[in-house]
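Retro notes, structure queue

What went well: the backlog is down to a handful. What didn't: a couple of records were mislabeled last round, so from now on we paste the full input next to the output in the thread. Example, using 5-aminolevulinate synthase from Actibacterium naphthalenivorans:
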Amino acid sequence: MDYTAGLDVALNRLHEEGRYRTFIDIERRKGAFPNAVWRRPDGTEKDITVWCGNDYLGMGQHPVVLAAMHEAIDATGAGSGGTRNISGTTVYHKALEAELADLHGKEAALVFTSAYIANDATLSTLPKLFPGLIIYSDELNHASMIEGIRRNGGAKRIFRHNDVSHLRALLEADDPKAPKLIAFESIYSMDGDFGPIAEILDLADEFNALTYIDEVHAVGMYGPRGAGVAERDGLMGRIDIINGTLAKAYGVMGGYIASSAKMCDAIRSYAPGFIFTTSLPPAIAAGAAASVRHLKTDQARRDQQQLQARILKMRLKGLGLPIIDHGSHIVPVIVGDPVHTKMISDMLLERFGIYVQPINFPTVPRGTERLRFTPSPVHGPKEIDALVQSMDELWAQCALNRAELSA
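Corresponding output:
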C-alpha cells in the first residue's frame, strides 16, 4: 500500500472539485474588531475586514471580558491542571455554570470544552441513561449532534427539515411506551432559518418525549437576556436540555448544556467526553462568565447587530443578489458552484481586503455553495458600503445570477 499516493488521491479530489480549504493567517488587533491584518504567504501584510467570524457581537474584544481573563490568569496561571474529576474544577468553572443555569432558568448547567463536545458527549450518553431510547433528529442538525446520535448505538429516526408532520408520523409509528427524545436547533446556521420550537414541544408533550435544543447560533443574540430563541418565544421552560456555545456571541471558548440538576449530574457521571477531557483554563471560564453576565443586560448590542444584518440584507437584495433571508442575523449569498465560490472569496480578500470563507459541500448540499456573512454591531456604514460595492463588481465580472431566492 502506497499511503502517500492515497493521500494525494484524496487531496487532489478536493482540488479538482474546488472544495479544498485554505487557511489564511490573520491577526486580530485588540480594539479594532472587525478589522485585522492578513499575513500573506510572501511575508507582506494587508489590512482586512473579517466578515465571516462567529464572534457575532464582538465580545471577544470587550473590556469586561478581557479584564476578567487577565484577573483570572494573574490569580491562577494558564491551565486548569486536569479533568473536572481530577483537579480541573475551580471556582471559575462553578461560577460559569451558575451563570448559565441562571441564564436559561434551569437548575444546573455543565460546561464542556466546546459545544461540539457537549452535543456529542450528551447525545451519545443519553441511551445509557434511558435504555431503549429513540432519538428523533432533524436532518439538518449540526454534525456534532449527528455524530453523537450515530455513536450512541441506540435507535434513531431522521425527520425532514422543520417538517412537523413528518416528525409526528415517525412518533406515531413507534412503541408509545419507548423512551423518546427530539433533537433540533433553534437557528440553522447555513440558511439562517428558525426551527418550529413551539410545534415540536407540543408533539413532545403529546408523545411524552424529552426535548434537546441546540441554541449555539442564538445564545447571546436573542431573548431579553440573550438566552436564545426559546427565551424570546417564551418557551425555554418547556425544554428539557439546552445546548449552547461560549465561542460565538459570547466571544470566548467552550460549550455547555443546561438542564435539571439530575440530568446534568447523570451526564457528568456517565459521558466519556466529559469525564476524560481536561477542563477549560480558568481564564477562559472567567472570561466566558463575564460575557454571559454582561449580555444579560446589553440589549443595545443585540439590537445594533440585528439592525446591521437587516441593512446588509436590504442592500444586497437591492442589487438582486441571491440571498436567503429568514429573518435571522445570518446572511447567506448563494453562488451555486464551488469553483466560483472560492474564486469570489479569493478576489474579495486580495483586491478588496474583505475576508469571507467559501461554504462548500459537505457543509451545504452541492449546487448551493455560498458565501456566509455575519455582520456585527461594529460592521458600520463604511464596512457595509465596501462589501456591497465589492460584491456588485465581482458578481458582474463573473456574470453570476442576480435572481433573488425566496425565503
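Agreed that this is the format going forward. Reviewer comment attached to the example: Residues 13-50+299-406 form a domain with the Aspartate Aminotransferase, domain 1 fold (CATH 3.90.1150.10).
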